[in-house]
Amino acid sequence: MAKEHSPGRGSRMYRPRKRASSQVARVSSWPKINDIKLLGFAGYKAGMTHVSYIDETRSHLKGREIVTPVTIIETPPMIVYGIRFYKKGKIVGVLLTDDKNILNEIKFKKRAKQGGKNIEQKEFDDIRVLVFTQPKLTKIGKKKIERMEIAIGGKDINSKLQYAKSILGKEVHAKDIFKAGEFIDVIAVTKGKGWQGVVKRFGIPLNRPKATKRRRHGGVLGGFKPPYVSWTIPRAGQMGYHKRTEYNKWLMKIGTKEDSITPKGGISHYGTVENDYILIKGSVPGTKKRMIRIRKSIRAPAVLSQPKITYISKESQH
Length: 318
Fold this sequence. Notes:
The protein is mainly β.
């Protein structure tokens, strides 16, 4: 006899489970901090390794050496090419840099009415900067840049504008925004797995062979009334390639290109790390070579101190 009640299959937090519209993940909200600096950055996922560090928390393992997996994200410098002005959540003006080389990078052909140079303070209440990545500095073989918008911390709008103008047309680095030991949020598009059935997509149990002669189908889709299939019923469809946000990842180290992190023979399916990089405890969404957006933690817990890393594995991955 069939069960009257059973737990729902698959989390309802991630509906609809459709493909992301772009690999450049959109950041829907930004934290509010008093420091006047950029609140985000972007890099490319290189792979994973493991490190050893001394535990300094109030854990029962305090003072002992702990081995943990970390993700390597290569962070070549990003270029600020514009400032965007907002009034009550709507764009009221854009100010672009005068550097023609930077405008050529973003394939800017016709200069529109910017409205940013003569804008008055009463006409806007928030500003954000427009930046783009430089994948040509890496070894991933990618040429097309990714453009995005990043918010600025601080309370005074005049200070924000002055800071934005100071970095307009210049490069910004991850070490200018983050510091080792703080918590960050990671926003990225997960690894795509294509069209999958209900067993793999939702984890429903296999049917008895005697019941319907099929083991991996969904079974009953609901009652006769109401006469439609509810959205809560597991169905086959797209799996993976979804935008996901992981909160409070521990940033363990910010390294420079002089301090090489590349293991012997290079990182499998990535190559060598040619720029600055960061080490994040644990895993992050996405495949290797995928762009990862990093944001100041919006739910920041107590700030941890910079970990005392005693060993970073650089053994061959081949």
